[in-house]
Amino acid sequence: MNSVTVGMADLNVLKHPGVLVTLGLGSCVGIALYDRRTKVIGLAHIMLPYSYQAKNNSNIAKFADTAIYKLVEEMEKLGAHRASIVAKLAGGAQMFAFESSNELMRIGYRNAAAAREILEQLGIPVVAEDTGGNYGRTIELYSDTGKLRIKTIGHGIREI
Amino acid sequence: MDISDLDSQKLDVLTEIGNIGAGNAATALSKLLGKKVEMNVPKAEVLGFREVAGLLGGAELPVACVLLSVDGDLKGIIMFILECSAARGLLDMLLTFRCEENGMLFTELEVSALKEIGNILASSYISALSTLTGLRAMPSVPDFAVDMAGAILSVPAIEFGKTGDSVLFIKTEFFEGSNRVAGNFLLVPFVESYNVLLKALGVITDE
Q1: Is residue B205 part of a domain?
Q2: CATH topology of domain A2-154
Q3: For this structure, is A28 an active site residue?
Q4: Are A27 and A91 in contact (CB under 8 A)?
Q5: Which bin fits A132, alpha (ψ -120 to 50), beta or left (φ > 0)?
Q6: How many beta-carbon contacts under 8 Å exist across A and B?
Q7: Per-residue model confidence (pLDDT) at position B56
Q8: ipTM value
Q9: In a 3-state reduction of DSSP, which class is residue A130?
Q10: Which residue, among B84, B162, B163, B192, would best test binding to A if mutated, counting the most A CBs under 10 Å from its CB?
Q11: Are B67 and A102 spatial neighbours (Cβ–Cβ below 8 Å)?
Q12: A35-39, A56-60, A118-122, B88-92 — which is least confidently predicted?
């Protein structure tokens, strides 16, 4: 099966059959989109919530807002229909306590919140979510059923 | 100054900073363990986000990390990162008794010991830097996590994500010969500190 790895601040899409993987999500959020009708899938590994808050925003895969728009656009190019796309979110952890005491404050939480907001604007429902906590996640998105497999160190493996 | 303005001459200077800081830290670790501690030549590297996770041997590699933030004239993050087996080896040298094994997880006492090692290393590193540059820099209390290298390294990466698409790491590898304990010490100065550092060292002058 076609397996494609999505790096940090990166996104990718593919047609069934295939798997999209992203490794070691910390405070970053993995945004997994799945078109139930055409089985086109898309995955983004975003680092920051909104592109307009950054000085340098040329890398659209880095931000929740621009990455989601781009992801949907790329999926539509492969034949996906926005009306049948659903979303799953994973990541958005707080890896270290110190993050709460400086301006990196709750970046994971803010990333997940931004992803939800943009998805709502696009009318894409978030059907499952595994965000927060203080641990990293590796995720795999399967095109056959849209299942999202989440692997952790010391916090088990689960599917959503 | 931006990260893209770091030419090879400036990176060399930052490497030398790593050399002086890490040399002091290695001496401190050696005293603490009562053993000889060696280090590799430090490397100042600018990595794109997609390369960051590979810095320590793969995004999913389980590692133990002691992290301190640095504040003052010089701002950044310090990370002392070891593979879990190396962290165990280090604890074996430091503690006279062996805690109950529970896989990759560490007991409260072990975490506390690792944090203290990180604290001592970071303080020695920073104090050498301060003496050399005359800059004021204070490490925070140490924080600890055991997790995938990618998730741990995303912490400095996100900070750099606000201004660019790459991260500067000043990396030094430590190892203790006989027991094959190796660890990585990373100084990650924030972009706003490059000017301050290079000015203090006379590499650049006021523009």
Answers
A1: no
A2: 60s Ribosomal Protein L30; Chain: A; (3.30.1330)
A3: yes
A4: yes
A5: left
A6: 116
A7: 82
A8: 0.87
A9: strand
A10: B162
A11: no
A12: A56-60
